[in-house]
Amino acid sequence: MIKKLCVIGAGTMGAGIAQVAAESGIDVVLRDVEAAFVERGLGTIRKFIGKKLEKGKISQEAHDQIVGRVKGTTSPEEGFAGVDMVIEAVFESMELKQRIFAEADRLCGPSVILSSNTSTMSISKIASATGRPERVVGTHFFSPVPAMRLVEVIRGEKTDAAVIDATVEFCKAIGKTAILCKDVPGFIVNRFLCLLYNEAANQIHQGLATAQDIDLGLKLGSNHLMGPVEIMDMAGVDVVNNALKAMYEMTGEERYKPSPLFEQMIRENRLGRKTGRGFYAYDK
Ligand SMILES: NC(=O)c1ccc[n+]([C@@H]2O[C@H](COP(=O)([O-])OP(=O)(O)OC[C@H]3O[C@@H](n4cnc5c(N)ncnc54)[C@H](O)[C@@H]3O)[C@@H](O)[C@H]2O)c1
Prior knowledge:
Layout: E1 4-8, H1 12-23, E2 27-31, H2 35-54, H3 60-69, E3 70-73, H4 76-80, E4 85-88, H5 94-107, E5 113-116, H6 123-127, E6 136-141, E7 150-155, H7 161-173, E8 177-182, H8 189-205, H9 211-222, H10 228-235, H11 237-251, H12 260-267
Parallel strand pairs: 1-2, 1-4, 2-3, 4-5, 5-6, 7-8
Antiparallel strand pairs: 6-7
The structure holds nicotinamide-adenine-dinucleotide (NAD).
Nicotinamide-adenine-dinucleotide binds at residues 8-14, 31-33, 37, 89-92, 96, 100, 117-119, 140-141, 143.
């Protein structure tokens, strides 16, 4: 059972993971490279939990306990002290992730589970930087972490079955549902999403359908909560293009080759909501 967790990287994902763990009664140490980044992550958590208190969803006592459960640090030794599990959520760089895993391997007790929130990288390759690849696993959370119910649990080449079980248990304990994935590019969900976004862009590019009709089609015909084109504008056209490029490079499969429409839109600064124009136009 995971009682104390270290989250490395206090950004979008790290702060969300720290929050849901603390809300479930787990002690958390949130670590980043600079005190200001740690404080920003802690501030995000305090804001979300504060809103729950304001709305009467939790008591003052529960609020104080949750906030009190998350401590911040920039020190690796302090971050790893007494933890049962480490979740790494730093930038998407293999070199950086391997460095952090090697350090965690050096400083954590032998039973500690080391996990990565990577969206694209091989868990086996990250694990190869440690002397305990059997205790390394992938936990791919979705954004925003407090709202999204899924975690993809990725089994590396050498991950122990017991580590997978403990990780699935941990996901349950923090109110998430786990699905088991092989260590392949895009795991399960992003392999589908990349295809959906690419198909939508290609249909628009080839004049087969409008953005509006694609979104309506999938919302009304397939009960999607949001249309794929709306989602691309929200995530950023450049971000979707990068995800497709990475999938195409990793798999070599033509179906992931980014639609030419993405490059054209990027040249025109039509990146989605963030630039006021993407597939749709927005009031700034
Ligand atoms: N944002 C998403 O929608 C999303 C979804 C699923 C998975 N992911 C994955 O989660 C990971 C984090 O993504 P994010 O969006 O939270 O990134 P982010 O940029 O918001 O946060 C990353 C944080 O890591 C910190 N960091 C960098 N090097 C560090 C080090 N050596 N030690 C400690 N902290 C360090 C940075 O200062 C930053 O605060 C990436 O691997 C990403 O692919 C992201």
